[in-house]
Amino acid sequence: MTYWAELVELYEYKVADAVDGRVPRGGRRSLTELRDTLLGAPLEPMLLRRFMECDRQYRGLLKSGSAAPVLSRPVPNSVAEWSAPARADSPESQSWEELQRMAWHTRLKTSLLDLAQLWSREPDRTILRVLYTVQENAEREGRSVGTRLAVPAAGDPLVSLNDPEVVADIAASFADLMLTEEGRLRVKTALSAAHEEPFARHPDEDVMEARIAAAERERLAPEARAALVAALRAQYPQARDPRERPAIREAARQLQRTLDDLLTAAPTATMAGTPSHSILYAQAPQSALPTPDDGKDQLVIHLGGGQAAHWRGMDLRWQPIGANWQLQIGPHVVLLRTDLPPAERSTLIGPARAQIRAFISGAYVLLSVDGRPEEDIGRLASKARAIALLLDTDEGYANLRLARAAAQLMRGGNIDTVALGTGSAEKYASAPSETLIAFARKGVEALMSRLQRSAPSNAAASIRMAAERLSLEDDRAISLHQALHMATFTPESLPPPAAMTAVQLPHAGQFVSVLLGQDPVTLRSGERALTLRQDYKGELAAVLPGHPAATLHDLLVIRVPGLSLLLVRQGTWLAAAALHDAPPSRDPTDHRLPGTLENKSAVHNLSHTMHVPYDTKN
User: Fold this and answer.
1) Is the pLDDT of residue 362 over 50?
2) d(CA 428, CA 431)
3) Of the candidates 238, 215, 233, 240, which has an alpha carbon nearest to the alpha carbon of residue 225?
4) Model's pTM, two decimal places?
């Protein structure tokens, strides 16, 4: 009966997400499949009342048209309908291309600022002087100003290239010019002119050189000849050293090569239109994204097609304010103005650690993660280890039972030792893998939330007390608290990603980082091989022989006999690890817990015992 109670509770969570306008975790199809299971379940009267009340809300949601029903099983003999992709000249495709250009422009501005700061540390700042000259002349051409600026001399006080704020303004203005095709053409013209003639010759330079040459041929004493040459030089302004021109031309060529590299990533207009499955609530059915992908660092939303979404653990809501849009991400609310120039239609939202940059184009918004990807994926890796620990089948899913008991204790309630006894392991063993993993992830995230609001010593004491009530060993409580403590406070340190298509996962359980591309990636651990490839929806599918394909969004734990495969992903950064079943290596006399007075540091290399094979597809 406890098994059915947990499924009813999970159904209530999923329906609550759907009622609030969010996509249920696991997708709408998982909600419908869970509903089909509970409709034929032998529920006791109290559970049946809870299920019927929740199901009444879900049926009301379907009748209102706010959520489209999803068939849990494909209709036999159904013929898939085909819809043409959005045309390249449609408003949706034009907004898509403009959003991509604005996002690229932001990355370009960051790259140019980093390069400008690097060039400002050069002795003569030659490349920076050329950058300033090209930017100034390109802007003058846009204002139809005929006077062209020469490349300033080193140390020119009127340019102030030693001021970091001036350098930042030059880099930002140069990036703004590169946003449009017309601006890039003016930049190319100005750069060619700077290379052809870095600075003009003085009109009297030839006359001065001829008179000095004539004076040096006079039959005079050396002192008199030197005085005559000095007097002639005083009559003419000092000309720039012509030996400076080759250095400026080389700097112009280097700047051109740098711009060529930066422009290779610039989006270009194509006849293909909007990519398939790329826009949430899209107008064109072919372009519609079924659910937001938590593993990607960008999300495009058609604001006119919905009112809310759930992405990367954040609740998104929006509403129109005249011609503009008000967007809420968690507790942060911003106004996205559509009447500003493209270079100004972006806004940073959220705290410094997890900022989201929003770009607006008409009724379409592009959300891009602006935080530190290495920290985000490191937190996912630590969370994946904790989830894998809860899926440990040793001693009748002892870690999962312990986590539930600790959660009950932290909520201030009593532990139901009967429902959490060893007899409850049968319900976990017979549960669908997708349901079990979703249940374990929700439990880990709930405990992480508790740990953030309590002292580490209090959390450690609660887990240890829960283990004592369930007659479990103290070492198990220590391992669980360590995993939860790391998932909450300590992102795992991952190596930088590298482009690979075949990866051998270390036996010791360390994560390997891979840079995802268009080609499939094969992960091997012993005799097992898991392949990651794009499916027909554009989602990343994890295919393991003998198991159904699973979709990798941001985190996936795959359990096979003798092995747990951990997969986490942020954008194109994939990290994978293989945890083999092995007895714990902990010293039985070591009872220190992270965050306590005995041990202030967390241990990263956790092992967990898994003796009973448990196959899962997600």
Assistant:
1) yes
2) 5
3) 215
4) 0.59
Residue 382 CA to residue 568 CA, distance in Å, equals 10
Whether residue 611 contacts residue 393, with contact meaning beta carbons closer than 8 Å, is answered with: yes
Structure token pair of residue 527: 């005799």
57's tokens = 């809300």
Q: Identify the three-state secondary structure at position 477.
A: helix
Residue indicated by tokens 């390069």: 115
* CB 340 within 8 Å of CB 323: no
Tokens (6 digits) for 255: 């700047």
The predicted structure's pLDDT at residue 186 = 93
What is the 3-class SS of 194-226, one letter each residue? HHHCCCCCCCCHHHHHHHHHHHHCCCCCHHHHH
In the chain, the percentage of residues whose pLDDT exceeds 90 is: 27
CA dist 139 to 156, 170, 184, 191, 343, Å?
Answer: 20, 11, 11, 12, 16
Q: Which two tokens stand for residue 305?
A: 């097609």
Dist CA 444 CA 155 (whole Å) = 60
Detail the DSSP E strand segments found in 396-527.
Answer: 502-504, 512-515, 521-525
Instruction: Quote the CA–CA distance of 531 and 542 in Å, as a whole number.
Output: 6
**Measuring CA to CA, how many Å separate 4 from each of 8, 39, 394, 501?**
6, 11, 22, 43
Q: How many beta carbons lie within 10 A of that of residue 340, not counting itself?
A: 12
As a whole number, mean pLDDT of residues 212-238 equals 80
Q: Find how far residue 48's CA is from the centre of its chain.
A: 42
**Exposure pattern of 296-329 as b/e (b: 16+ CB <10 Å)?**
bbbbbbbbeeeeebbbbebbbbbeeeeeebebbb
Instruction: Say how far apart CA 51 and CA 434 lie, in whole Å.
Output: 20
Average pLDDT over residues 259-275: 78
| Block residue for tokens 């992102």 | 491
Distance (Å, rounded) from C-alpha 383 to C-alpha 433? 18
Burial class from Cβ neighbours inside 10 Å (0-12, 13-18, 19+) for residue 40 reads exposed
pLDDT in tens, 113-165: 989 989 988 888 899 999 999 999 999 988 888 788 888 888 777 788 888 88
> CB within 8 A of 171, min separation 6: which ones?
109, 112, 113, 115, 116, 131
Report pLDDT digits (tens) over 561-596. 888 899 999 888 899 999 987 554 444 444 444 444
